[in-house]
């Protein structure tokens, strides 16, 4: 609705052609473009008051829109400074931080792989120029971030190359350090440089000892090796043997370090080794790799060790499921030759292959039932989706074991329960798998 033409100012000269009143859109555009003092003047002038009287709803809507734009802009500024000026950047010298900000901007906010890679390389070159330690967590963190970004853009081979180079560097440093320690030729640590004249003295951080650095780099190497195993096993790469090799190295290195510490004790400043959860994760990953290769007799002891280290009830049920599967598929091996035989007292009394097979299946049945029991117990916050998954899979696995024992009627019930439970929790793939196994059974009228 146009403003009232009688609203001319008192200083209007007679005979002067009245200027058209500005539209609401034009007035708001002028307010946004002008500086704050001009915007305040426009808001207070009589024309704005007239618009408010004639079109209050439109005016208020426009004001709300302007306030919304300002709020969004303020929020963007807040997020920008909280992200790009957070500790993850300010811990680097400013030239490195600037290059990293640009790299992450072109990685996540305005994707441009060529420019992102350019600034990542620039950041690493600047780390050299600034004299940063190649093996510091800050510099290695940049390389790990580059690998993660390359994986994100599906450049898997380049991601693998970055991590392989970093793994090789960590291994070489540890080897040289261990050799020097054995020969007694480790150089003395250089004290931290004194602040330059005029610079404020900052609290001096203790220098990292060689043994502490060895622990940090060895743990980093184990983690990188496990990540490489995941990349090699990815469907876009499918290098199963290389994946398995990286897992074997990670687990052997982890266990060898635990054994060394137990035998020789901690060195001065050495620090703690990997957490039980991290060690258990490596063991489980290697066990899964053995399962994928149908080497169930090698997977079993690793799953048992991972179970001993596990603290999460729902994940314990997952591990019990894997143990049940490994027992059910365990090959017939001479008593005492398989690692798990030392845990099975009945292995001493097996008189035939049939008895050995029956013993494996009985163990598989027990562990599948244990998985169901443990997956059903957690309540409240302790219950995670893993419990539902473990329960459904354990029911299906138990059905398979019962079918192997010739108990088809009991197996049918477990498959039906597994399919129903899977659908209840929205796990359609598990339901289809249980129904497929159900269809493989002889008809219900057949003799069980």
UniProtKB/TrEMBL annotation:
<keyword id="KW-1133">Transmembrane helix</keyword>
<protein>
    <submittedName>
        <fullName>Uncharacterized protein</fullName>
    </submittedName>
</protein>
<dbReference type="InterPro" id="IPR019734">
    <property type="entry name" value="TPR_rpt"/>
</dbReference>
<dbReference type="Pfam" id="PF13176">
    <property type="entry name" value="TPR_7"/>
</dbReference>
<dbReference type="GO" id="GO:0051787">
    <property type="term" value="F:misfolded protein binding"/>
</dbReference>
<dbReference type="GO" id="GO:0006515">
    <property type="term" value="P:protein quality control for misfolded or incompletely synthesized proteins"/>
</dbReference>
<dbReference type="InterPro" id="IPR040201">
    <property type="entry name" value="Mrg3-like"/>
</dbReference>
<keyword id="KW-0472">Membrane</keyword>
<feature type="region of interest" description="Disordered">
    <location>
        <begin position="187"/>
        <end position="208"/>
    </location>
</feature>
<dbReference type="InterPro" id="IPR011990">
    <property type="entry name" value="TPR-like_helical_dom_sf"/>
</dbReference>
<dbReference type="Pfam" id="PF13374">
    <property type="entry name" value="TPR_10"/>
</dbReference>
<feature type="transmembrane region" description="Helical">
    <location>
        <begin position="57"/>
        <end position="81"/>
    </location>
</feature>
<keyword id="KW-0812">Transmembrane</keyword>
<feature type="region of interest" description="Disordered">
    <location>
        <begin position="1"/>
        <end position="23"/>
    </location>
</feature>
<feature type="compositionally biased region" description="Basic and acidic residues">
    <location>
        <begin position="196"/>
        <end position="208"/>
    </location>
</feature>
<dbReference type="GO" id="GO:0031942">
    <property type="term" value="C:i-AAA complex"/>
</dbReference>
